[in-house]
Design a protein that fits this description.
- By secondary structure, the chain is α+β, with helices and mostly antiparallel strands.
- The protein is built from 22 helices and 20 strands.
- The chain has three domains: 155 residues, Ubiquitin-like (UB roll) (Roll), CATH 3.10.20; 375 residues, Glutamine synthetase/guanido kinase, catalytic domain (Creatine Kinase, Chain A, domain 2, 2-Layer Sandwich), CATH 3.30.590; 124 residues, Up-down Bundle (Four Helix Bundle (Hemerythrin (Met), subunit A)).
- Strands 1, 2, 5, 6, 7 and 8 form a six-stranded mixed β-sheet that branches.
- Helix 13 crosses helix 15, helix 14 crosses helix 15 and helix 19 runs parallel beside helix 21.
- The longest helix is centred in the last third of the chain and has 54 residues.
- About 2% of the residues have low confidence.
- Bound molecules: adenosine-5'-diphosphate (ADP) and magnesium ion (MG).
- Magnesium ion (MG) binds next to strand 12.
């Protein structure tokens, strides 16, 4: 649809951007709004009216007929309710209207969204509130054109019912505490610090026809059955391979659509598994990046359908090949343009860098369980610890140079930085590159990558809000603690050194530069006293431990009530997801797989009858019949057992979730194992489900 436009014209064409605002708003209104966006002013209704009017005129010129508050309830997805701009006039006609009040606030019924007990149906009022820090935009969906207003979602009593509110609160907390530290260290020019985020989105594409023949994909987003194909990712030929034409056309349309929305989609490539791909935008403020990631996920799914594909965002759509993550690159930027995690050439002299680095080490070590909990979803359970994503143990990769520095600090003073030197490739015609001072580590859950950290445990279908507000909160808290000490000190240099030395000593155990996938690390981590929370349910249960409630309350990111509500939602979500998977399995096994096994057995029996009446022994038929008989019977029993377990989940969200994890998941694994064996001996012509080979290799 944007095929002809030049990229410069296209980029941000559908965004009510800073440039559009400057052009369309009266100068004083523009200045006032900028101050509000920077957190230095309050929005009053008269200003809101002016902005709403400008926004409406702009949107209508672009063909919009409706507006909506676009928000992120606890489902992890986005929600929107469209309102037309029309407003009837007394003479029976209509004018287009959009008031400041409508811009600032919406009132969806909160009772139909997960609230973890915060909202009962009789007290259902909820509000969506305009988030001025994330620009409004226009989307074309089919023939419809709608103005989207990014919003937070809270209850009548002001409790957060969404993912954005705690993210925004955590950005403020981080800003405040980081500024205190910078001021105490003598840095006076900076007036704000922002958490930045660049999420790499992995996904699968499969042919739509296969998708529609599989109830498991349609209901759960992953395959619950399917024998491995003879070839998976063994040849390692897909990663960074040349793009298939149909996929390249798909990516082209995705990019153009995203660019129009002001999302700076930047890199794209084939991922490790057949049928797996990645898209990454340029980083931006964590709040906007989280909104943009939602747009990326939504656009991938919509555009895929247009190209005859379905985009799978699940963390593990296929057993036996790589799953999908969302590596979340995170850093801290000042309004003066400095990346606080940039070590510079001589990091040992860069006190600001060292203090922030140490604060992060302490935060990650102290609140490792919270970080683990922030990625605990039923889908991600198939990745974490499953030899492809980082294990369930949180550790930090720093690389040679910084690890050496922390070691020096733990021993005493830090006097030098290991330098990278030159990288020689051994071919004279190739240029000599300045070597990065750190190598990469693809197995670490939390890796320093030169001037940012990469949180690699985040699942592909997750909102980045949860992991990022957790990270922001715990880092803000430690920065606050450091600021307290610095502000009370009369010798800043000595106190700073003492603080970072102490952190280096106390928290060096969290640093691990080796292979996180090897079994020895599990033992080593246990020796170091690092938690290894394999179970998602246990991770979710740890959310409300007293020190976790305390840190969220101290930083005013979540109250105890809000945190308990979130825990409740996560547990419910876990149990519901597993239940849906189990029920889908039961249905497919009973209505498709067992009948296929029996039908094939019937065919073999007829063949046996034929050959024996012709005087042959029918050995093959007898062997096959025996196997079929055995497997279908085992499958039938396993399904019955699963069925019984699903209808007896017990009471209370924690007990239910635990039952699902401990009882249903193993039963489901058994059902699958038997069915996959059956698949391998049944007639391909009558097998009712598209196979792994068909799904992974058809473009
Ligand atoms: P990789 O080589 O790790 O796959 P990619 O290029 O796919 O890297 O993605 C790296 C991501 O990190 C990009 O989204 C990029 O914009 C982001 N990034 C770079 N610098 C920063 C920063 N200072 N803060 C946050 N994200 C950053
Ligand atoms: Mg990448």
């Amino acid at each position: 649809m944007y095929q002809g436009d030049s990229i410069a014209e296209l980029f941000g064409a559908n965004v009510f951007s800073d440039a559009v605002m400057r052009h369309r708003l009266p100068r004083d209104a523009y200045t006032a709004l900028k101050r509000i966006i920077e957190g230095r002013g309050v929005l009053d209704l008269s200003l809101a009216n002016v902005i709403a009017n400008a926004m409406k005129d702009w949107a209508i010129e672009k063909g919009a007929t409706h507006f909506c508050h676009w928000f992120q309830p606890m489902t992890g997805l986005t929600a929107e309710k469209h309102d037309a701009f029309i407003s009837p006039t007394p003479d029976g006609r209509t004018i287009m209207e959009f008031s400041g009040r409508e811009l600032i606030r919406g009132e969806p019924d909160a009772s139909s969204f997960p609230s973890g007990g915060l909202r009962a149906t009789f007290e259902a009022r909820g509000y969506t509130v305009w988030d001025t820090t994330s620009p409004a935009f226009i989307r074309q969906v089919g023939e419809a054109t709608v103005l989207y207003i990014p919003s937070a979602f809270c209850s009548y009593t002001g409790e957060a019912l969404d993912k954005k509110t705690p993210l925004l609160r955590s950005m403020e907390a981080l800003n405040q505490q980081a500024l205190r530290v910078l001021r105490a260290l003598g840095e006076t020019k900076v007036s704000s610090v922002t958490a930045t985020l660049g999420p790499e989105q992995e996904y699968f594409l499969i042919d739509r026809r296969s998708f529609e023949q599989r109830l498991d994909l349609m209901m759960t987003g992953r395959t619950l059955f399917g024998a491995l194909s003879p070839r998976g990712q063994d040849m390692e030929d897909h990663y960074f391979g040349s793009l298939h034409e149909r996929v390249a056309s798909f990516m082209n349309e995705v990019n153009r659509e995203l660019w129009g929305l002001g999302v700076s989609a930047k890199t794209q490539h084939n991922e490790v598994a057949p049928g797996q791909y990645e898209i990454a935008p340029l980083f931006t403020s964590a709040n906007v990046a989280t909104d943009h990631n939602q747009l990326i996920m939504d656009t991938l799914q919509r555009v895929a359908r247009k190209h005859g594909f379905v985009c799978l965002l699940h963390e593990k759509p296929f057993a036996g090949v790589n799953g999908s993550g969302k590596h979340s690159n995170w850093s801290l930027a000042t309004d003066t343009g400095t990346n606080l995690l940039d070590p510079g050439q001589t990091p040992h002299e860069n006190m600001v860098f060292l203090v922030f680095l140490c604060a992060i080490l302490r935060a990650v070590d102290r609140y490792a369980k919270l970080l683990r909990a922030s990625v605990a979803t039923p889908g991600n359970e198939h990745r974490l610890g499953a030899n492809e994503a980082p294990p369930a143990i949180i550790s930090v990769f720093l690389g040679d140079q910084l690890t050496d520095m922390i070691e020096q600090l733990a021993r005493g003073a830090v006097t030098s930085s290991k330098q990278g030197g030159q990288l020689r490739i051994g071919v004279n015609s190739l240029p000599t590159l300045p070597k990065d001072s750190t190598d990469r580590n693809r197995t670490s859950p939390f890796a320093f990558t030169g001037n940012k950290f990469e949180f690699r445990m985040v699942g592909s279908s997750q909102s980045t809000a949860g992991p990022v507000f957790t990270l922001n909160t715990i880092v803000a808290d430690v920065l606050g603690e450091i600021a307290d000490q610095l502000e009370a000190s009369s010798d800043i240099a000595a106190t700073t050194l003492a603080i970072i030395q102490r952190i280096a000593k106390e928290h060096r155990r969290i640093i691990f530069d080796g292979d996180n996938y090897c079994p020895e690390w599990v033992q080593e981590a246990a020796r170091r006293g690092l938690p290894n929370i394999v179970s998602s349910v246990d991770a979710i249960l740890s959310l409300t431990e007293p020190e976790h409630i305390a840190v969220f309350e101290r930083q005013k990111v979540l109250s105890s009530t809000e945190l308990h509500a979130r825990q409740e939602i996560l547990l419910e979500n876990y149990a519901k997801t597993i239940q849906i998977e189990a029920k889908t399995m039961i249905s497919m096994a009973r209505r498709q797989i067992i009948p296929a096994g029996l039908a094939f057995a019937g065919e073999v029996a007829r063949s046996l009858h034929q050959v024996t009446s012709a005087g042959a022994k029918g050995k093959a038929q007898r062997y096959l019949l025996d196997r079929l008989d055995h497997l279908t019977e085992e499958l039938l029993t396993a399904v019955m057992e699963l069925d019984q377990a699903v209808s007896n989940l017990g009471n209370g969200s924690a007990a239910k979730a635990q039952f699902c994890e401990e009882r249903l998941v193993p039963l489901m694994q058994h059902v699958r194992k038997v069915s996959d064996e059956l698949e391998q001996i049944c007639d391909a012509r009558t097998w009712p489900l598209p196979t792994y080979a068909q799904m992974l290799f058809t473009r």
